[in-house]
Design a protein that fits this description.
The complex is a heterodimer of chains A (292) and B (429). Helices cover 70% and strands 0% of the residues of chain A. Chain A has 13 helices and no strands. Chain A is flat. Chain B is built from 19 helices and 11 strands. Classes of the chains: A mainly alpha (292), B alpha/beta (429).
Chain lengths: 292, 429
């Protein structure tokens, strides 16, 4: 019997209603304001069609901001996934200290993003930050840089902070996935002459595919809607070199340009929805085929 | 007859006792069940103490009316207050900036007219001007007019034989001498985009002295920033100063909080600050001698004027509040001379030029010196006088200029384009 024949589809209604009333409906209503001149200085809200969207796509500065978001989302997703998987593989072994190590690597996740941004602001300070001081101490002063003031490095620094913070979360998801790999599969691969790499590719990867999908989905979503870490670290600066869409939306709302800001947030919402729905549908189709 | 006298005396005694009992009850009768909501930005209340809480508590003890003060982080204040207004949760009392900054809170719709309150006649001139909107007094201001300038350490200047620069060339000479001796000439908190904008905002009065009704024309969109040569020259001088290292190495990484330590420990000889800032440095670093520091106007583009605010922040009463009469009682309480004295005694940063005639000012040495160092006179800076000026947006453009991504004229063009968005959004057609 298939799972969807055991439980009626109506079981989803309570959760869906709550989600619809508290999130979906306000978002849809909010989208209407993106087609208006809604602003802080006047009460004359009027329909202006696609004017806000035309402005967005005609502004090269905003397109660069989109580029920052994509850069951040792609690199944080890849690096968090890779480091998270490596940590999970190592800490899935029978080590005496593995529980302590798992806790240590997960700990950064419980620190507030704002605190992380403020702390790293000091660590990355070019003149008296710990990182540059340490590099000078070990004779690598030539590697000292303006990590958060050089426009060419600031996004990379932001990516590094996110990877440090959230690789542990990816590790936890992968560890859960690794528990589903039957030990006898490794034995069988070993008997067939498979080395560690073949075991990883032919045994481990297929079984942890759902974990990979979940991690990538969550990583992409959190990368695209990043705000607090970068806000605390650089406020989108210097200039706009580390500005991401959420900071632009925040600044536009602060300026009082509500209609324009809502247009930006609508675009972000649509992008996130598209990605999430695509990944979930892909995963569900794979799951249904596996059941058949 | 004697019996009648006794009865009359007894009656008189009883009535006297009754009257005093009624009076006693009336004196202790307090207003029950009324709470006034009071929303303020975090750094506007209880700064370096708890004088606002103390006065709220005193008012509650005197009248029984509770004050529910809700403090919002500075960066979010405007958004939170606007959201409350949009959703019908307008506080009974809220704080806004004086001058043009109040306009975004739709004064005609939300602010009560306080013109006839008894304390209005005791305002000093700048306070009456700063709280008057559309010809009506709409705020209770217990603040002080302040302005920004280059706060400097005279002892350091004297040590190296330096005088207060009166033009850009002299400023460059001062900076070079200080740099040669390992001292940051003017420490800049470059991470804070708004601070770059504050520099530029100070040239407003000087430019206005060269162009009649400049602010009015800017506000009616009859003139652009790009049309004013003084603005472009200021930005050119500003960029040159940055390239010469006048603001220290790596200034773009410096946050606001770092300035206290750098100045307090003698790491820099100057800082763009407001007049009461030196008290804040003294509070944290008593050995710094910051109370003797002085101030001069930014000497870029020929500027020689003292540029000031619209008087600071004010409390506003929500005009449709069901508790409006109690709000006015609270305002009467706050403006009593004894309570005004308590407030200003508790706010060392506001003592230089109080808003009421009852309170004597205690000018700081920077406040006195900047007026002396400004032979061109004084005027309101652009942050408080020009519509659709946003420190964050303007500051970002200036940061891009410092990085070499924009020229001064491109900065002015960007400011004009940003303001035009709001002119377009607020146009009736």
């Amino acid at each position: 019997m298939k799972p969807n024949q055991i439980y009626s589809k109506w079981f989803v209604m309570p959760a869906f209603l709550l989600f619809f009333i508290l999130f979906l409906m306000p978002s849809i209503l909010g989208m209407y304001t993106s087609f208006t001149n809604w602003n802080a200085m006047s009460e004359n809200m009027r329909f202006i069609g696609l004017t806000n969207y035309v402005k967005i796509f005609g502004d090269s500065a905003i397109l660069r901001v989109f580029g920052n978001n994509i850069y951040y989302a792609v690199w944080t997703s890849l690096l968090k996934g890779v480091f998270g998987l490596l940590l999970a593989l190592v800490l899935n072994r029978a080590l005496k200290t593995r529980n302590v190590l798992r806790m240590i690597f997960f700990l950064p996740m419980i620190i507030s993003n704002l605190i992380v941004g403020l702390v790293f602001q000091q660590i990355f300070h070019p003149a008296h930050g710990i990182l540059n001081e340490f590099l000078k101490l070990i004779g690598l002063g030539s590697l000292a840089r303006g990590w958060i003031i050089d426009p060419g490095l600031v996004m990379g620094s932001s990516v590094a902070i996110e990877v440090w913070k959230a690789a542990g979360f990816n590790m936890v998801i992968f560890l859960a996935g690794l528990q589903s790999v039957p030990a006898e599969m490794y034995e069988a691969c070993d008997i067939d002459g498979g080395n560690a790499w073949r075991q990883f590719v032919n045994v481990t990867l297929p079984f942890i595919l759902p974990s990979i999908v979940i991690n990538m989905l969550l990583n992409i979503i959190s990368g695209l809607k990043v705000f607090d870490v970068i806000f605390a670290l650089t406020n989108g600066g210097p200039g706009r070199s580390s500005e991401v869409i959420s900071i632009t939306i925040f600044n536009e709302f602060s300026y009082g340009n509500y209609g324009y800001a809502t247009a930006l947030s609508t675009l972000l919402f649509l992008a996130l929805s598209l990605i999430s729905i695509s990944v979930i549908r892909f995963y569900m189709r794979k799951g249904e085929r596996a059941m058949e | 007859m004697r019996r009648l006298s006794k009865v009359l005396a007894a009656l008189l005694l009883v009535s006297l006792l009754g009257a005093s009992a009624v009076t006693a009850v009336a004196e202790t009768a307090k207003i029950e069940g009324v709470t006034l909501t009071y929303v303020a930005s975090q750094n506007w209340v209880n700064k370096a103490g708890n004088v606002d809480d103390a006065l709220n508590q005193k008012f509650e003890e005197e009248t029984g009316i509770k004050i529910d003060m809700q403090v919002v982080p500075d960066d979010q204040y405007a958004n939170v207050l606007k959201t409350k207004m949009s959703t019908g949760e307008v506080p009974d009392i809220f704080m806004v900036s004086g001058g043009i900054g109040a306009e975004k809170y739709l004064p005609e719709k939300y602010f009560a007219d306080l013109s006839n309150e008894s304390w209005v006649s005791r305002y000093v001139d700048y306070a009456k001007q700063g709280t008057t909107i559309g010809g009506k007094v709409m705020g209770l201001m217990t603040w002080c007019v302040d302005g920004w300038g280059i706060l400097y350490n005279p002892a350091v200047y004297e040590k190296y034989g330096l005088k207060v620069p009166t033009n850009f060339d002299e400023f460059k000479t001062v900076c070079q001498t200080l740099k040669d001796n390992g001292i940051t000439p003017v420490y800049e908190i470059g991470k804070e985009s708004w601070h770059w904008a504050v520099w530029f905002s100070q040239v407003g009065p000087f430019a206005a002295s060269k162009h009649e009704d400049l602010y009015g024309k800017l506000n009616r969109n009859e003139i652009k920033f790009a049309d004013v040569p003084e603005f472009e020259q200021f930005l050119k001088d500003f960029k040159e100063a940055y390239d010469l290292g006048c603001f220290g190495q790596d200034s773009l990484a410096n946050p606001w909080d770092a300035a206290y330590e750098v100045l307090g420990t003698g790491g820099a000889a100057g800082f763009l600050a407001y007049q009461s800032y030196q008290h804040e440095v003294m509070d944290k670093y008593p050995e710094s001698g910051a109370d003797t520091w002085q101030m001069y106007p930014i000497p870029f583009a020929g500027n020689n004027m003292y540029s000031h605010s619209a008087g600071g922040n004010m409390r506003v009463a929500y005009k449709d509040s069901p508790n409006l009469k109690y709000v006015k009682m609270f305002f009467d309480f706050l403006t009593r001379p004894d309570n005004l004295k308590t407030f200003y005694d508790g706010r060392g940063d506001l003592q230089t030029n109080p808003s009421f005639v009852d309170v004597a000012g205690k000018p700081t040495s920077s406040g006195e010196s900047i007026v002396k160092n400004a032979p061109g006179g004084q005027g309101m800076d652009m942050e408080y006088g020009v519509k659709y000026w946003d420190n964050t947006q303007v500051g970002i453009f200036i940061q891009e200029m410092m990085l070499g991504n924009k020229t001064p004229s491109e900065v002015l063009k960007a400011i004009d384009e940003k303001r035009q968005e709001m002119f377009d959004a607020t146009s009736a057609s």
